[in-house]
Write a structure and sequence with these properties.
19% strand, six-stranded mixed beta sheet, 21 strands, 538 residues, homodimer, 2 domains
């Protein structure tokens, strides 16, 4: 126990909290459908209290680089888990005491005789950085709306205890969707099963990452540290959005990621654009030219070798994509219309085909300023930030090497720090390239009993998303467009991995006005109740 | 007098103020050289007091869009002028009571019998907007350094009264160079002549613009309002920097200016770059492509018709440029080295040749963000701000038309406001173009007695810049690279116009850490003393 730090509760006792008091009662076995129905009844009665608890969790600033903030999140979540009977450990990575801690929690099955089957749930409690001035409300002041703001939703107070909760309402806050939703859903699911007297028939382990949005640099160290305690029949990654059609989805792979920040230099100080315009090189224009040369209007990346290592999709993956297209004819047109796009990239090539390719994205570009603070200058530098999404076969470092080769081929002198005065005078074109940590893509098998079990739980919870009892088809996606550190698990453990997202696809994750549609929170509660109650596969 | 508002002094009485008390004494005539010498003696004795006055003036925030701030500047300057015997009028433009006022002031000659010759001095008291976070010190907290910050200058307190002032010191504040320096220089020059008992042999009128950095939208209305009161033998535009070599210069033309802000649109909200990268168009990349297509690596603008209306330089102008090249062999290489540039644009084409061409500059580009707040997104839009410098023959509106034609030729649908949902779904490429007010270039004759008189004064004051008594050649520049509203005068009045800059060329005008080298302030004082004391031409 010496390396184990039990953390006292940091949040007020939630009104909806009942799990511990009910824990002593005998439990009965339930199917996934029965457990989901019990969860639905629980959240119908206690929706307002669950929402109040979620708002308290969302009020905690959670950017990975903010040490005190991130540790306050870990403590609060640990408290909630302990109160529901989890054994909790909050620990920084070995040798990095200031890095965001992992919250590791274990809750054994309470079915008679136990389950003997074990599942690890992965989620993360950190969020992307914010540009607070671009948010309608402050990012850590959770605010309830009657619908999506852009669709005319209006602000309303949190409901009083017992008041009904409309599943179309949305709660706005950083990490509402990415990725505190599954944490809140798990807490409520445990409460719901306890209140209904239904047994949990799997041993649950929970691994909550505190720096996923910073590239999970210490996740591997945590997995190695926890070693045998992570032995399980499978892993569920509770992250990402459900399908754009609103249907539940499972995913069996993720794109990898790498990043590169590029700064191009002009004169060593700001110059008056009148006195020097046409004579002094303009780094904004040079950088624009550099980026324009990296990707054509046809959507094809022009960096030599960029697609050389792409492994094509296998037979099973192509079949799964074809099944989705059969299930959802015209879905991409609907998505385009929803997003206000007259055309998608690459001449309208299918989404699934595009996501199966390595991608190069300019995630930010800043040179001097625009709007109120724009001035008639040639700035000394301009910076762009790129993210590269990787598919199976791509090595993160090698992909960044290809981009840097491209820079050199454009006659740029590449530096890692601010150029020196001597470098400036020697090289007409200078680019500073700063690499960001990355990781590879992962594809896992799409069949097997673990995947069947997860799909059954999603099927049982699906009515929460459909808004009626008819349910809706669960989609099986070979790979998510986004990136999650599945590789850390895949590289070290033999267990199957399935991705099981909860958030709405239009949750503005990574962006201003991130939000969660409450129907999706409810789906998560029903889903986790079904998972915990129904027998896990061997 | 009903339209005339005499403004009470807003600043404390300056320690160096002596003009009014000396005004009653009989005055003697002096040559330009004698007047400059008297000014030099005055500022040698009172440099610290002059600097303290200047710091008070620079402490007043002066962005044209800040009405209360800009009016406080006008009142303060009016007070200083009145205290020195000027008749002052501070007036908003007709029909625009909230617009920045013009300070118009008159000081008749005090030579026996008067001068009968009249000069109008133009300067402006507003400054460019600031990005305060990029300044070493707050922009309106004037701060003294022992030299340029980038050259290792260190911060030091303002000198005590009577303490000597080093001409290499620099004072850092918005508008230190552009364009409060000539205002302070005029005040000190009047004091210096009074203290030395030297007569002013010209009638001086002063027109101080309060919105030059906003394009002087009301200057024409002011000139029409003041009408006959502006009758003069010539105009001096006290703005812009001295030559990059440090030598005094006169200029006989300016480039015109126009501007265009371009916003390119993607999806109607931020998208996760993983889930949508490679499928949803990225407006940053689209805008980069658009800008890259507007100007080639050879420095040539690719907008059709961009150079069609350029009037080539005349014989006199070409000769003047040749004279500068003879006077300053290798000057451009020195300038490149100073600015840390291995090469200038367009394969090293001569500066004078480049400045004689219309130019297209990207003064700012912002799409999402970089650095700490960068996130893995595809942003909904990206914006660039362009400024276009015009030469003789270019019409501002027509030049913007050419650029907009170019946008359409790139298959962009052009809008003036945020695109509607219907426009988004109809057009794959949408650009919002917002025009900024502009004006044409002006070239004035380089010969005539007025120019000779101005050059003689600059010659007399030149030792202040050279740092010794030997003086240094006054350069005669056909056109300044920058823009000044000379056209307002040239279109309405027949008087000759000469530009007579004071500030150092490396004053970071329009940029963070704007500054004035004190030698340049001293040059301005000597110059204005020489101008006021020596007979003006007919």
């Amino acid at each position: 126990m010496s390396r184990r730090r039990r953390i006292a509760a940091a949040l007020a006792v939630p009104a909806a909290f009942v799990a511990l008091s009910a824990a002593a009662a005998p439990r009965s076995a339930a199917t996934a459908a029965e457990a989901a129905a019990a969860a639905r009844a629980w959240r119908d009665a206690h929706g307002a209290e669950i929402l109040a608890d979620f708002a308290r969790l969302l009020a905690l600033p959670n950017v990975a680089s903010d040490g005190p903030g991130i540790r306050a999140n870990a403590r609060a979540i640990a408290g909630e888990l302990e109160r529901r009977g989890f054994a909790v450990e909050v620990a920084a990575p070995p040798g990095a005491p200031e890095a965001p801690p992992v919250v590791f929690a274990e809750l054994p099955a309470d079915a008679p005789g136990g389950a003997g089957r074990t599942v690890v749930l992965y989620a993360h409690y950190d969020g992307q950085p914010v540009e607070a001035e671009r948010w309608t409300n402050p990012p850590w002041s959770p605010t309830l709306y009657t619908g999506a703001i852009e669709a005319g939703g209006t602000r309303r107070p949190l409901p009083a205890a017992g008041e009904p909760v409309d599943p179309d309402w949305r709660i706005y806050a950083r990490s509402a969707g990415d990725d505190k939703a599954p944490i809140q859903a798990l807490l409520a699911a445990v409460d719901a099963l306890a209140a209904a007297g239904l047994a949990r028939r799997v041993d649950v382990k929970v691994l909550l990452d505190g720096e996923e949005e910073a590239g999970s640099p210490h996740l591997a160290a945590h997995v190695e540290r926890l070693a045998g305690r992570l032995a399980a029949d499978g892993w569920l990654f509770l992250d990402g959005p459900v399908h754009q059609s609103g249907r539940p989805q499972l995913f069996f792979g993720v794109r990898g990621i790498a990043g590169l920040d590029l700064t191009v230099y002009g004169a060593n100080r700001h110059l008056h654009s009148g006195h020097y315009g046409n004579w002094a090189p303009n780094p904004i224009l040079e950088l624009a030219r550099l980026l324009a040369g990296m990707k054509g209007e046809d959507g094809r990346v022009r960096v030599a070798g960029f697609y050389d290592t792409v492994e094509p999709l296998g037979e099973a993956e192509r079949k799964a994509l074809a099944a989705i297209e059969r299930e959802l004819p015209g879905f991409e047109d609907d998505l385009r219309r929803e997003l206000g796009l007259a055309a998608s990239e690459a001449g309208g090539a299918p989404y699934a085909e595009r996501i199966a390719l390595s991608s190069l994205n300019v995630r930010g570009f800043v040179g001097a300023s625009v709007g109120e603070t724009a001035r008639n200058v040639i700035p000394p530098s301009a910076t762009a930030s790129l993210d590269v999404r990787l598919v199976a076969g791509n090595d993160p470092e090698a992909m960044l090497d290809r981009i840097e080769d491209h820079l050199r081929a454009q006659r740029y002198h590449l530096v890692r720090d601010e150029p020196t005065a001597a470098e400036r005078l020697e090289h007409p074109k200078i680019v500073r390239a700063v690499r960001r940590p990355g990781y590879r893509a992962v594809r896992t098998p799409m069949d097997g009993p673990f995947a069947v079990w997860a799909a059954a739980a999603a099927e049982a919870a699906a009515p929460a998303l459909a808004g009626d009892e008819d349910g809706t088809t669960v989609l099986r996606l070979p790979t998510l467009g986004g990136s999650l550190p599945l590789h850390v698990i895949a590289d070290r453990l033999a267990a199957p991995i399935v991705g099981l997202p909860i958030a709405n696809h239009d949750d503005n994750q990574h962006a201003p006005d991130e939000n969660l549609r409450l129907a999706n929170l409810f789906y998560g509660i029903d889903l986790l109740a079904a998972l915990l109650a129904a027998p896990a596969p061997r």
